[in-house]
Structure formats: structure tokens, C-alpha cells
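This section describes the prediction task in plain terms. A model, or a person checking by hand, is given the sequence of a single protein chain and must write out its three-dimensional structure as a string of C-alpha cells. No templates, partner chains or ligands are provided. The sample shown here is typical of the held-out split.
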Amino acid sequence: MQGVEREAINPRGVPNTLQYGFSQAVMVKGGYRVHLSGQVGVDAHECLVGPDLEGQTFAALDNIESILGTLGGDLSHVVMLRIYIAEPARYDQEGVVQALRSRFPKSPPASSWVIVSGLSEPEWLIEIEAEAVLPELP
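The expected answer:
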């Protein structure tokens, strides 16, 4: 990330969230911020990728990666995730952990996880908002 300094913060004395695929905080200097709308587990044709939380999580992250790619970025530029999990999937969160650990193996973004009664469509189990910091434009 030319022009951007990014540091994941995971101090002693607070829970070790790295095991769940996210950092306690991310400090960023330089670049420009991009706020992404919530992404769900659908493909480019708006078809649900499957009924399970893990698959929908990977698809939502794929969508985030695709959007960032059009801006010259990738998942390494993500500094914050807001994850909304529908009540029916409350106890399937291990799939979210696996997806995050897979996609953010080093210096993962900070995140908040919220259980909600439901999303816009009843079959949607997760929605992920992202904030990214991309390098300054030349």
C-alpha cells in the first residue's frame, strides 16, 4: 500500500480477537477512505450462493473484494467490517470465523458483529459493511 501506513493493534489486556479473524483496532495514516454498502451472499446475478452462513460470508467478502478491485484495491486495504448476522444463524458463527481467517490471514481488520432479527430477504443470513483505505491517487 504505497502512501498508506496500516497497523493492526492487538494489545495485551484485552481479548485475543485474532483467533476469530479480526483485530481490536487498525491505525491508518495516508490514503483515502472508501465506505462500502452492506454486501450479502449473492452473486453478480443476484442469486443466493447457498443456504449456509459460511458460503454466504465468503460470497459477501468476494463482493467486497470485487468492488475494491475496481478501485485499485483489495481485501488488504479493509480496515473495518460491520457484520450483521441474522438470528436464524446466531449459533453458526464458526463459518464466519473461518471465512475471516481465510481472507484476512495477516493483520485483519477491526470488526463489530451484531445479531439482527433479519435482513432484507429471509434467506440472507449475513450482511457485511466494509471500510477500506486505499493509496492516494497519483
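For orientation: The beta strands are 5-9, 25-29, 32-40, 78-86, 110-116, 126-134.
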